[in-house]
Amino acid sequence: MPELPEVEALAHHLREHAVGRRVHRVDVASLQVLKTFTPPWTELQGREVTGAGRFGKHLDLDCDGLHLVVHLARAGWLRWSEHLSAAPPKPGRGPLALRLHLGPPGEGPGFDLTEAGTKKGLAAWVVNDPADVPGIARLGPDALSVTRTQLEDLFAGRTERLKTALTDQTLMAGVGNAYSDEIMHTARLSPYATAGKLPAEALDRLHEALVGVLNDAVARSVGQSAATLKGEKRSGLRVHARTGLPCPVCGDTVREVSFADKAFQYCPKCQTGGKPLADRRLSRLLK
């Protein structure tokens, strides 16, 4: 799933390549992806792209005051091309959900919104104000802007596991499954620690890891093409998606806890005093 660093890099790419261009045509290959009907998506056509930004894990393309907001979900992606095909896509064929032409079709650049797999979560909204998107309206403060004091205030009284708190977008926006694993590993904290009971020294480490991991990932991601971002993300991970491999810090074996259709990874020696955590596939840990 694209998280804060990747979405920030995509926004940067659009600021570099899309701003100043005009929307010539929008092709919708999957009506399911559109979550709004007023204003209609056809109103994007003819407008100049004036900005691109991010709200948590939502990507925002500002088309002269009308916003195309996208949440890429677990398997969605933005694919930029310097020469998009002029032929309108056939609805329901392949992973393509929406195509935006930023030049004469067949001659100019633009991008596709695609989604792999059968479980569809990719969503797009056309709104006058990004705050009209329900997911954005519910977001907590952006993870990159949270201070040490704010982090303590956000966690005060929270009874859920640390893993759950870090990935709760209403509490703090932008951190997902992968970077929460990396942050906890860097901070040497157990995913099962209670968020509201972390001592001051642990909160210090957590905030330092939050800022360090995300800023490092943003620095590595911004400037990359959309096509190389996924590989760049994987190359920078130390524990996430590395089950069975040695921890790059201590050499212990990276372990996994599975729950429902997700999983997280951690290092026992670095994070849990050497004790492996129970792996309950149907655990309610992150519901």
Automatic annotation (TrEMBL):
Coiled coil ranges: none
Report a single Gene Ontology molecular function. Answer: damaged DNA binding
Q: Where is the Formamidopyrimidine-DNA glycosylase catalytic domain?
A: 2-84
Xref: InterPro entries: FPG_cat, FPG_N, H2TH_FPG, Ribosomal_uS13-like_H2TH, Znf_DNA_glyclase/AP_lyase, Znf_FPG/IleRS
What domain of life? Bacteria
* UniProt catalytic activity: Hydrolysis of DNA containing ring-opened 7-methylguanine residues, releasing 2,6-diamino-4-hydroxy-5-(N-methyl)formamidopyrimidine
Does this UniProt record's set of keywords contain Chloroplast? no
Q: Name one GO biological process term.
A: base-excision repair
Domain named FPG-type is located at: 238-272
Does the keyword field hold Transmembrane helix?
no
Database matches in PROSITE patterns: FPG_CAT (PS51068), ZF_FPG_2 (PS51066)
The protein's UniProt keywords, in alphabetical order, are: DNA damage, DNA repair, DNA-binding, Glycosidase, Hydrolase, Lyase, Metal-binding, Multifunctional enzyme, Zinc, Zinc-finger
Question: Which Pfam family would be a valid example here?
Answer: H2TH
* EC number(s) reported in the record: 3.2.2.23, 4.2.99.18
Cofactors required = Zn(2+)
PANTHER family xrefs: FORMAMIDOPYRIMIDINE-DNA GLYCOSYLASE (PTHR22993)
The family note in this entry says: Belongs to the FPG family.
Q: What is this protein called?
A: Formamidopyrimidine-DNA glycosylase
